[in-house]
Design brief:
The chain is mainly beta and 124 residues long. 3% of the residues lie in helices and 53% in strands. The chain has 1 helix and 8 strands; from the N terminus they run αββββββββ.
Length: 124
């Protein structure tokens, strides 16, 4: 049975229209050197927190981790088996890397959910 929540996932009270996806790819130029290219795309989606921010304490120091989930019609990739790196999403001043993607078409045509981990301040 399909439960269509398209109306909720496109409701202006929930959807954010200023999310930015950064897709990265590598190629080899004529000199045999690797070149990185980034494509920035603005997209819409519903963002909700995952586990929340957590302080990790290790012998090397401390750092804050966290994750978010995004439900969107925009194609986001974790890069697994695709010959490219995972997409990075900019949201609320932070950068998050796509860890997993799930087909959410049973909730509405064309939707995917992406689970994204917070990147450290140094980024990727």
């Amino acid at each position: 049975m399909t439960i269509d929540v398209t109306e909720l996932l496109t409701d202006p009270d929930f959807v954010m229209h200023d999310l930015v996806a950064i897709s990265r790819a590598q190629s080899v130029n004529d000199a045999g050197r690797t070149e990185n290219t980034e494509v920035r795309t603005t997209f819409s989606g519903v963002v909700f927190p995952g586990t929340g921010n957590m302080m990790l304490r290790t012998p090397d120091g401390e750092r804050v981790t966290g994750d978010i989930s995004i439900v969107t019609r925009h194609y986001l990739t974790d890069g697994i088996g695709q010959g490219r790196t995972a997409d990075v999403v900019e949201y609320a001043g932070g950068r998050y890397i796509v860890k997993n993607t799930f087909d959410y078409s049973n909730w509405g045509r064309g939707f995917v959910m992406a689970v994204c981990d917070m990147l450290p301040v140094g980024g990727v």
